[in-house]
Structures are given as structure tokens and as C-alpha cells.
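Person: I keep going back and forth on a fold encoding question. Show me how you would write down a chain together with its backbone fold. Please set it down just below, with no commentary around it:
Helper:
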Amino acid sequence: MNKIKKIRKSHLIGVLTLLLLCACAPTQKAVREANVAVPEHYQDKITDSANSATVPWKAFFSDPKLVALIDTALANNQELNIMLQQIAMANNEIQVRKGEYLPFVNAYAGAEVEKVGEYTRNGAIEHNLDVRDGEEFPEPLTDFSIGLDVSWELDVWKQLRNGKKAAVLEYLSTIEGKNFMVTTIVSEIANSYYELLALDNQLNIIEQNLEIQKNALEMVKLQKQAARATQLAVRRFEAEVFKNQSNKFEIAQRIVETENKINFLLGRYPQTIDRDSDDFIEQPIHSIQAGIPSQLLANRPDIKQAEYELEASKLNVKIARANFYPSIGIKAGIGLQAFKTKYLTHMPESLLYSLVGDVVGPLINRNAIKAEYKNANSRQLQAVFEYEKAILNGYIEVANTMSNINKLKANYDLKAKQVDAMTEAIDLSIKLFKSARAEYTEVLLTQREALDSKIEIIETKRDQFLANVKIYQALGGGWH
């Protein structure tokens, strides 16, 4: 007997040793850590830690009508609502992963009827043995049971706990993804709103210019009657009027499309966008505090999202590595079983219980596990590059937009001087034409250049607003 026990013990030790040897994971070196170093300043410009990204968007935008539009979008935008459902699903995934490393307890109850052949082992036993109270086994044989089943996988290698931690990081990543979507929606609505104000002003400028051109046309017609101008001059002025009337329809169509773009972001059908375009040119451009580059890591949602994805990928590598090790499980059950319900309460005769422990590990054909482990490492390396790319992209966006803001300011100042000069030139050209000291082509050219300069200064003003929105988003503002 002792010899048999020794043999069984040696066999058990041999099996366990074989499992452990075969479960050894490859010793692949971990991928490199992400490089999060950024320059101390933006293009050698000394700045302090004051940062406009910390300003809530309701305080950043001073136009109450724009604020109302953004509020509506954040409540009704379909893409944002879809993202909120993804957040809810990510939160549910945490509960799923958490439940995996806790014991599973199931209650069961069952009834069964079975007729066996008499010339079988079970049939012979049933027909030759009696049970208590002189009753024979019923035929067909019934079976009733009730009890509890417990199964539990021991998380020895922390595979399940790492899965739960990875799910938490994925949840936090979706939160940052939602924040990034909010900043995108806020900036898109603000950009479209300022585009709309600029189009309104361009339309107004064309209408004002049309009045000037119509007056000039009437003047040329009178000059023709007095034989001081030709039919060619009349037709040239008429063509210029028709051209600008055509431009009105083009701008009107762009206004409709821009309004509908805003309506789409607001999750509603086309309608007029409430706005005040009268003082567009006079509206001040707020100054922006860029802070220091290292603040991007804390302020930009896309960078924080990439960081959470990177941390989750590291845990996924550990999970993939744990697949090489044997899993240890425990199964247990306790209940009552009898062929008649009246015997279910007879103790301990109807009592049944079981306890099973098993160790299962990959032995042969582990190529799929190895491939998944390599993929997990590759995905972690991808996450490293994504994180580094997000940081680099954030820095370059801020640097480019800051440079653009400075150049747009200088550009606007020069455009304002050009508009003043061309406005004065219109009056001068008409006076000179009336006194026959200038050709009609000079009047036409002057009016055309004056219109272009006024359109350009409106576009430059619009670009200034768009650059301010861009730098606010690039710094990480707009999601709170």
C-alpha cells in the first residue's frame, strides 16, 4: 500500500513539474517606455504658468448667443450621446472583469425520469435491492435534486485582477475621449458661428458696394447722354453690378450651409441661427495665456487618453504572459438528491457533496498563445508611439497657432489701413471722373479693389477669432 502511495505521489509531482516547465513564458524584453520630455518653452519664448486652458468655455466665450448654441449641442449632439453610451459600456466591463476573479455560486433544482434495461448493471441492482420501508426502486426511476454549485478560478498569476485594472484604464480612456469630443464640438460650433458672422458682414459689404456701383452706373449713363462717355463704359459698369449681384447669391448659399452645419451639431433640423453680426469688426480679440508645454500632458484630453491606453496595454501584456502558466480551479457542490421527493429531507442519506481541484496548463501547440503574447507587446509599442505622437502633435499645434495669432494681428492692422485708403480712393476716383480727369476704368478698378480689401479684412478678422478658438482647444481647454 505504501509503495502504491509513493508511486502515485511521484506521478503527481512529475505531472506538476511537467506543467510548470511547459508553462514557462518567453523572456521577451519589455518594450521601451514613452518619451514624455517636451521643451521648456514654446520656440524659446519665455512664458509663465498662467494657462487659458483652465478657463471654462462659458467664461472664454463672451457672446451669450454662442454660449447658448454650445449648451444646446452638448445636450443634443448625437455623436456625444453615442460616446456617453460607450462610457456606460466601459463601466459595465469593469463589473464584468471584477466578477471574474470572485467565486461563482449557482443554485440549481432538477427533476429527472429514467428507465434502464433490466439486463444492465443498474437494472439488475434496482430489481434485486429494496430500499427502506420495503419499497422497491420505482420504474421508471425518477430523480430529484436541489443544491448549490461553486466554481472559482484562483487568480494566482493576477491575470484576472490585471484584466480588471485594464478595464478601469479603458474606462478612464473613454472619459478622456468624451472630453476630447466636447472640445471638438465646442470649437466646431464656435468656428462655424464666427464664419457665419463673417459671411453676414461680407454680404452687407457687397450690398453697400452695390449701392455705390449703381450710383456710378447712373452717373456714367448721364455722362453718355452728354457725350462724355461711351456705351462701352455703360456696359462695363453694368457688368460689374451683375457680378456683385451674383456674388450675393453665392454668399447667401454659404450662409445657409453654415447655419445647417451648426444645426447638425445641435442635433436639430434646419432653422435660422440666432446671432448678432453688427459689431463683428469692432469685437475685441481676447489675449491667450499659453502656459508652459509640460501642462499639455495634464490639460489635453487626447494626450491623457493616449496615456491611459498605454497603461492598459502594459497590463494586457501581463495578461497575455499569464496564459503560459497553468490555471488553478476549484469546484464544489452541496445538495440533496433522492428518487422520491419525500426522501429529500432525510439526512444524511440524501446529502451529496463534492470538492474538485484542477490544474490546467498549455502543454503542446502553444503557438496561438505565443502569437497573442507577441501581439500584446506590439500593441503596447503602438500605444507608446501613439502617446508620443499625441504629445508632439499638441506641442506643434500650439506653436503653429501662436505664430499665426501674431501674424494675423499684424496682417489685420495693415488691412485696416488698406481699407481706409481704398474707401478714400473711391470718392477721389468719382470726383476725377466727373471732372474728366480720370478714365471710367480707374473708377471700376478702384471700386473693385475697395470691395476686395473690405472682404479681406472681414476674412482676417474671422481668422483671428478662429485662431483664438484653435489655441484654446490646442492648449486643452473647452471640455469643462
